[in-house]
Amino acid sequence: MAGNSPKIMIESRGLSKYYGPFVAIKDISFSIPQGQIVAFLGPNGAGKTTTMRILSGYLSPSEGHALIAGYDVSSDRIEVARRLGYLPENGPLYEDMTPIELLQFFAEARGLEPSVAEERIHTVTDLCAIQEVLEKPIDKLSRGYCQRVGLAQALLHDPEVLIMDEPTAGLDPNQIREFRTNIRKLGKSKTILLSTHILQEVEAVADRVVFVHNGRLVFDGSAEELREDGSLEKPFYRLTNEGRPETVSAMEVSEK
Asked: How many CA atoms lie within 13 A of 231 on its CB side?
């Protein structure tokens, strides 16, 4: 029954972005229900970051609409901000602050009550395992710890939706493994969209794959439906070299 359908938490309706004659993305449409982890897959320059910046409100679309938990990103910015956590690639942090100062600053900026802020800072500190560096200047932290601090900041207000752009870029294998474990835990209570061009990432954490190439959607389905001959490498190579403008259904891929 329709009443039992999961709530749509992330929705892209015909998103396009033009820079003069250059088409960054064209007519990107998909929706993600509550509680799903979706990998936004594609090669470098495919349009993943542009789409995610529009979905998070950092960039305005030339055409189309982006919605978070049913709220339009362009016209309902405050409601969207309450429900969205965003971790951009190489996200900027205030390097002269310590992690605890940064979290306290964002808690105040978001208007969290002191008791709530204290509880949430404790929660995200444990979740992201940054206890050892709370009092250390951010500019002295490793890439891995900076990524953890960025994730802690994105989770501070306990958002329903989490959008992450290349979240494991620059991390070592141990850090990547820890990060993926955290994502799987978060996926039990949140809707997650993470962009990547790493196939192992898709297989490790994703319930579903949204694949873009040359600014256009070329596949939307599960990793299992995308896989060919037991691997994601073959369909990745085919979809990024054929340059097909239309979306490929899961059935079409399985018949290849």
From this structure: 6
Q: In the chain, what is the straight-line distance between the N-terminal and C-terminal CA atoms, in Å?
A: 34
Distances (CA, A) of 201 to 47, 110, 194: 18, 31, 10
What is the number of domains present in the chain? 1
For residue 58, the 8-state DSSP code is S
Residue type, 186: L
Give residue-wise pLDDT tens across range 66-101: 999 999 999 999 999 999 999 987 777 899 999 999
In a domain, 221, yes or no: yes
**Cβ proximity of 173 and 136 under 8 Å:** no
Q: What is the CATH number of the domain that holds 175?
A: 3.40.50.300
pLDDT tens digits, 206-215 = 999 999 999 9
8 A C-beta contact, residue 64 and residue 232: no
CA-closest candidate to residue 236, choices 206, 213, 208: 213
The answer to whether position 74 is within a domain reads yes
Q: Are strands 8-19 and 63-68 parallel, antiparallel or unpaired?
A: antiparallel
Structural domain span for residue 65: 2-92+159-254
Which residues on adjacent β-strands are paired with residue 68?
10, 71
The verdict on residue 177 lying in a domain is yes
Three-state SS for 66-135 is EEECCEECCCCHHHHHHHEEEECCCCCCCCCCCHHHHHHHHHHHCCCCHHHHHHHHHHHHHHCCCHHHCC
Distance CA 183, CA 172 (A): 16
Strands 8-19 and 161-165: unpaired
pTM: 0.87
